[in-house]
Structures are given as structure tokens and as C-alpha cells.
């Protein structure tokens, strides 16, 4: 399918591809070596240096249409390129959760909030986390969130415990966007609010860093954080009391397409590694790529990637032309389809690599963790399937 991208967009795609070829792929081993060589929670100098190069080449904040001028459809292939190396999105200031938080601040923040928090995030001077998920409730239903935000004069007082706050382990994390209840008696979709919380505020404590399938995801990490009588100015509230669910829904669009397109890149890379490996490994007198089982894996993987990519591009197009609300079924579809597709292809590639596939010599184990985690981090598959079914049934009522 040949999308009619503008000359400017095609030039940007070529420019990003050249940057990946020159600076990202050759540094994959160096990234791993640096992160394992000392304090794992210290920002990597390699990444910081590459950020300066990306800024100099205007490959910065590409995710935000108001800055880059790119539509979701135009950004999609760029996100796919970044996805091929899981840490590369940070080089271009296009990594979660900062992208989602910046979108929230851009859409809903006051001028003062933007000056204090959005500007340094856009400049890459600080990082942030999103404090929504709670260990004590099923947080895939945002109306379950039970942390409290209580007004006290010119302050709000926050209490609650959050976890899976990605990025909170990073020493550069300065801001948490905190979701909690401001009115338990309001209709359920109007009970929650969101508020900006400095990570150095009294009462904010990172209790522990959580491993993902045994990996710590340093230097960013995923934290469990307690908020104990945290007092923040009333001016830190986003949009207004009772608007938290609305903001959460607004945050779920563009960033989820970004995740899905990055996963397309992951799946492409896994397939390429599978083909390379099976073309040069021999067993029972022939290359693995000559065996029918492996050939089926390769064919099925290609078909699945193409199907998933077209669905994501359709979703991006609909978001650009009709809006996120009208594209909600397609957004739910890609969030269910793409991680499962990527996980399946990565698993085949691991199988084709044998013991090497689960080792640190290839990125496949990290790819698998990324894909499997997104089947929860972007909401569980079952929630997306329910959304799709509900919207389909409405057509027949």
C-alpha cells in the first residue's frame, strides 16, 4: 500500500533512517556495555550525546504534531524505525511516558504549567512519570482509582500508593502526573482528577523499583510510589476537578499508535534476525531456512506484520481525519492485535535462534518482554476486545 506522503515527510524518513544506520545500530552493544559497567541508574552518556546529535539534525519531538507538523499517519513509519532498537526513541525525545505526559500538558495545561513543566520536558532537560495504576485495585478500569485528592485551602492534599510508574526510577524524573479522587459522590466518570506533583515534594517516596520478567529496565525503571499527605498548590490541578477520566481518555490516542508502530518495527527486526539466522545455520544436512516449518514461520510472520501495519495506518488515518473518539474501535483493535502479533513473531525468532535467542547476544529476549508487557501496560487484551464488541453490537441495536 503506497501512502502519498509529502516530499518533506519522505525526506524526514530518509534522514531518520540515516541517523539510525549511522548512530543507533552501531551503538547497540555499546549501550548494553555502558549500562552494565557501573551505576545502572545513572543516565547513559551515550544516549545523552546522541540526543545532542538528534537535536542538531532537527530529529526531536517528532511525536508532537504541533511542533513537528506531522500527522499521526506521517509519524507512524518514523515510530516504526525507532522501534527496531527499543531504547532509541529516547534519543529523539519520543519515548513513553514523557510523550503522553507532554501531550497532556500541551492539551490541558495552563500557560504557567507549560512554562514550568512542559518546556523542560520538550527540551529534554527532565523526565516524568504517570502515577495512575494502583496495586490494590484493577486499574484497567480508571474509575476504580481510589487515591485521594482533597482540597485544603489553597492546597490539595494527596494520599495513595501507585505502582508501575514507568520512569520514576530515573534520577532525572522531576514530575509525576497523579490521578486520584476529588469527589466520591459524583457520577463515577467525574470522581477523579489529575494533578501535577513534583517528585521532590514532601511525602513522595519511591518505595521500590519493580522488575519486569526479572529485568530492572534501568536507568528508567518502574516504581512503586507512596504519596503520604503530599501538599501541592491548587494551581497544579489539570483542567479542573472531576476531569481526570476525560484527560486519561485523551491521553490514550496518539501515544498508543506510537507504541503499536514501534512494535511493528520490533516485529520486522525479529523477522530479519530469524531469516539471517536460519540462512546460515545448518542442521541435518541443510540450512534451517530450507526446512518447511521455518519457511512457514517466515511466510506467516510476513503476512501478520503486513496485516497489523495496515490496521495501524488505517487507525492513524482515521485519528487524523475523524478524531480519536470516532476511531476508538480501531484504536482498541491495534492495542489488541499488534502486541500479540509481535510476541508471536519474536517467539518464532527465539525458537529459530535456539539457546542464543534467550541470551544477551541478541535483542530477542528484550523484544519479547516489551511485547508481552504492552499486553498489560496499554490495558489488558480483554478490555480492548470488550470495547470492540460493544461498538460492533451497537450497530445492530
What sequence of helices (H) and strands (E) makes up the elements?
A: HHHHHHHHEEEEEEEHHEEHHHH
- Could you name the ranges where pLDDT drops below 50 across 5 or more consecutive residues? none
The largest sheet, given as strand count, sense and whether it forms a barrel, is: 4 strands, antiparallel
Order the strands across the largest sheet as they lie in space.
Answer: 2-3-7-6
Q: What is the mean pLDDT?
A: 95
CATH topology of the largest domain: Butyryl-CoA Dehydrogenase, subunit A, domain 3
Question: Helical residue percent?
Answer: 40-55%
Number of domains: 3
The rough form would be described as: globular
Number of helical stretches of at least 4 residues: 14
Overall structural class, as computed from helix and strand content, comes to alpha+beta
CA radius of gyration: 22 Å
CATH superfamily of the largest domain: Butyryl-CoA Dehydrogenase, subunit A, domain 3
Strand portion: 15-25%
CATH architecture of the largest domain: Up-down Bundle
Provide the descriptors you would attach to this structure in a database record.
alpha+beta; Butyryl-Coa Dehydrogenase, subunit A, domain 1; Butyryl-CoA Dehydrogenase, subunit A, domain 2; 4-stranded antiparallel beta sheet; 14 helices; 9 strands; globular
